[in-house]
Amino acid sequence: MNSNLELPGLDKATVISRDNHSISRKQISPNALKVLYRLSDADFHAYIVGGGVRDILLGNKPKDFDVATDATPEEVRKLFKNARIIGRRFKIVHIRFGREIIEVTTFRANHNPENEIADHVPRRQIKGLDSAHSKSGMILRDNVYGDIDEDALRRDFTINALYYTTRNFELLDFCGGLDDLAKKQIRIIGDPEERYKEDPVRMLRAIRFSAKLNFDIEANTKKPLNDLAYLLDSISPARLFDETLKLMTGGCAQRTFALLCEYQLGSYLFAPSMEAIEQGDSISAKLVDLALRNTDQRLAENKSVTPAFLFAALLWPVLKLHLAASRNQDIHPQQAFQQATQAALTEQLDYTAIPKRFTVASREIWELQNRLQRQNRRSIESVFNHPRFRAAYDFLLLREEAGEELGGLGQWWTDFQNGDTKLRTELIAAVSKPKKRRRRRSKRKSPGVSE
Ligand code: ATP
Ligand code: MG
């Protein structure tokens, strides 16, 4: 077996021996350990890094485990039947164990002209080659392999650059991450402006970790946020959708949203909502806030949350604004409603992508708001049996809680759901509209209305 000292870059680390840190193997997923052992048995170096180490040190349960290694993606794949190389710009390996995926990345360095080398060639293999050769390959900044110390420096925050190994069970700190964990602060590695310019999503990550861990953002890390928020413009809507989901489903959406607003970052994720909240009524702004609180509560109770509900809430102020604008136009209310839902969703797609299955469901939640206005037995039963009823009902309750006056509609539906057949019949009878044009109907029975 190799000794740790053979790994280039290791001399740059502060090494914390097993007796001096709190990580034990019991806190690590058995699958992540399997990956470490197998890589190690094949004479590679492998470490748990990122959220897995950070969260254990904080006494939290990690969401997932990421592994960093000096093995190339191809070398990793050869060792695991269940491994798949993904990513075009930078290859990473996903090793699947049932529902758990362990993500394995090869140590890599940050962009630096000196390091620009051919794709697929790990630096440890080409060190010593002449410059003509090293310039020959395709230059893709993300595809630069590096040593472990460089791998640490290209990570985003110091608390995310701690490495744990099952060789001697040591913890490695290259950037003062342990100190920042103790100080409860998010500190970016390197020059903040430069690092945000390299990847503007790091600004969102700063907010996410600050909200999730209840950490302050260190002064220099925080300073450029307002001024550089506009850089998010250059990020693809697909990536921003992924980040938005992480921001909103991390268990502290309410705090996250407030921080996003504070640093102007929210305007680059939800511009239409932000504008509508500013112009619109306080009730729909309140609905957004309550929906985020609701999301956090549901996650705390291990209940599922759907992006469709989140977007239905976030875009509610936008929808309301469109509806208000259409009121002065000579347009059928149903058509106006459809146009407004379409406009609200389309405007958001300039900022974050939203997969179709979610936009369809968001629209259903909105449409059901109208249908929840009980007409008669048939309409009540049809809305009650709709697959999206529960989400629509939850949404209705939020609207009322936010201050919309809906004449006790939420309570009616609560009673209806809890009631037995007799109570339901009474509830329906109490609200069913009297039949119109009785005389004509006795001659020609309308197919659209049932008793
Ligand atoms: P969690 O999984 O709990 O959300 P995490 O820190 O593990 O948090 P991941 O997105 O899983 O976050 O990323 C794993 C690690 O990869 C991070 O801890 C960080 O070291 C590095 N990383 C991720 N995204 C970036 C980025 N945009 N810039 C630099 N490093 C990053
Ligand atoms: Mg992670």
Helix content: 40-55%
Bound molecules: adenosine-5'-triphosphate, magnesium ion
User: What shape does the CA trace take?
Assistant: elongated
Number of strands: 10
The radius of gyration is 28 Å
- CATH H-level superfamily title of the domain at 1-109 and 145-183: Beta Polymerase, domain 2
Separate helix tally: 24
- Weakly predicted, low-confidence segments: 1-5, 113-141, 442-451
The level-1 CATH class of the domain at 1-109 and 145-183: Alpha Beta
Q: Average pLDDT, to the nearest integer?
A: 89
Sheet/helix structural class = alpha+beta
Approximate strand percentage: 5-15%
**Assembly of the depicted chains:** single chain
Strand order of the biggest β-sheet? 1-8-7-2-3-6-5-4
CATH topology of the domain at 1-109 and 145-183: Beta Polymerase, domain 2
Head-to-tail CA distance between termini: 81 Å
Q: Could you say what the CATH architecture of the domain at 1-109 and 145-183 is? A: 2-Layer Sandwich
